């Protein structure tokens, strides 16, 4: 069986930060929780190392969660639906215009995977009406249906608790001895780097504050948590008093080339190692 890699390209994907994150995980833990799962880079890396027992994955984006639920419940049907999609401009806009509510779960999952593989920059962005609105992307020969990886992903998602819900619900699910990894939407580094919203709801300073409160509360309950975010004065102020380390990564969040490059991020833990 192949090792599963992330199925989706996701803004803020943690590929580059992985070694730093893996090095800072507790040796052992009971359940693993990822309440901003996105592309799930850390979850797939842990699953490849067979380091996880019970797993809880969640995110506020229902389209994203459909992908994991679709793979978990019927990977064959997702593959069949994905094989019907072709890389073509007109077909792209026709699939983008479909109403997810008219599709079955496997069809919804296949639609999101297809759009993710063929849209501009692999971004996920919605308009005010909550419709995916990223334009068609230019690729030499995009792999739309990576069947071995989809099957490998379905295998590691077996038995995983997957749900569309806000990050605050981790307080209901996490037990002492569990481990939580938080990868929230970044606090913007500057006013121009304003990519904070993965959907129309956005994620502002009040959300960042609420998240810090959840992070601290988990620590008081004996649940270890680790969080990554951009290295900004606001984030340093929020997490003053917690063990915090600076790391550098090359991340791509802006479609503008000048917005790309090495940026400082922080990794914070809620309990000393
Ligand atoms: C930085 S991304 C996570 C990237 C992920 N670690 C990866 O490797 O791809 C942040 C995620 O938070 C989700 N999100 C935004 N607001 C949320 C909320 N209030 N509760 C839960 N998830 C939320 C977004 O949908 C997005 O997938």
Structure commentary:
The protein is α/β, with parallel strands linked by helices. The chain folds into 2 domains: 151 residues, 3-Layer(aba) Sandwich (Rossmann fold); 82 residues, Adenine-specific Methyltransferase, domain 2. Helix content is 35%, strand content 15%. The protein is built from 9 helices and 7 strands. It has a 7-stranded mixed beta sheet with strand order 3-2-1-4-5-7-6, with helices on both faces. Strand 4, helix 8 and strand 5 form a beta-alpha-beta unit. Helix 3 packs across helix 5 and helix 3 packs across helix 6. The relative contact order is 0.17. About 2% of the residues have low confidence. Bound molecules: S-adenosylmethionine. The site of S-adenosylmethionine has 22 residues, from loops.
Strand content: 5-15%
Order of helices and strands: HEHEHHHHEHEHEHEE
How many strands? 7
Report the sheet with the most strands, covering strand number, pairing sense and barrel closure.
7 strands, mixed
Name the structural class. Answer: alpha/beta
Overall shape: it is globular
CATH-defined superfamily of the largest domain:
Vaccinia Virus protein VP39
CATH class of the largest domain: Alpha Beta
CATH architecture of the largest domain: 3-Layer(aba) Sandwich
**Kindly state the mean pLDDT as a whole number?**
91
Widest beta sheet: strand line-up: 3-2-1-4-5-7-6
The helical percent reads 25-40%
The set of bound ligands, ions and cofactors reads: S-adenosylmethionine
């Amino acid at each position: 069986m192949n090792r599963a890699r992330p199925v989706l390209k996701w803004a803020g994907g943690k590929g580059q930060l992985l070694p730093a994150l893996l090095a800072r995980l507790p040796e052992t833990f009971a359940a693993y929780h990822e309440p901003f799962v996105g592309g799930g880079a850390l979850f797939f890396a842990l699953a490849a190392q067979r380091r996880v027992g019970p797993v809880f994955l969640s995110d506020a984006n229902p389209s994203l969660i459909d992908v994991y639920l679709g793979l978990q419940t019927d990977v064959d049907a997702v593959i069949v639906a994905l094989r019907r999609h072709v890389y073509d401009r007109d077909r792209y806009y026709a699939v983008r215009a479909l109403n997810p509510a008219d599709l079955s779960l496997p069809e919804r999952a296949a639609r999101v995977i297809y759009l993710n593989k063929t849209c501009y920059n692999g971004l996920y962005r919605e308009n005010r009406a909550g419709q995916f609105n990223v334009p068609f992307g230019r690729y030499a020969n995009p792999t739309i249906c990576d069947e071995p990886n989809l099957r490998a992903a379905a295998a590691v998602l077996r038995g995983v608790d997957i749900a569309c819900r806000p990050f605050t619900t981790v307080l209901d699910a996490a037990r002492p001895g569990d481990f939580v990894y938080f990868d929230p939407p970044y606090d913007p580094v500057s006013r121009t780097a304003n990519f904070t919203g993965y959907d129309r709801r956005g994620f502002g300073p009040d959300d960042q504050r609420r998240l810090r409160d959840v992070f601290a509360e988990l620590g008081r309950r004996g649940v270890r948590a680790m969080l990554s975010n951009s290295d900004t004065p606001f984030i340093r102020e929020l997490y003053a008093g917690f063990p915090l380390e600076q790391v550098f990564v090359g991340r791509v969040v802006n479609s503008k080339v000048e917005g790309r490059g090495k940026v400082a991020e922080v990794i914070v833990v809620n309990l000393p190692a």
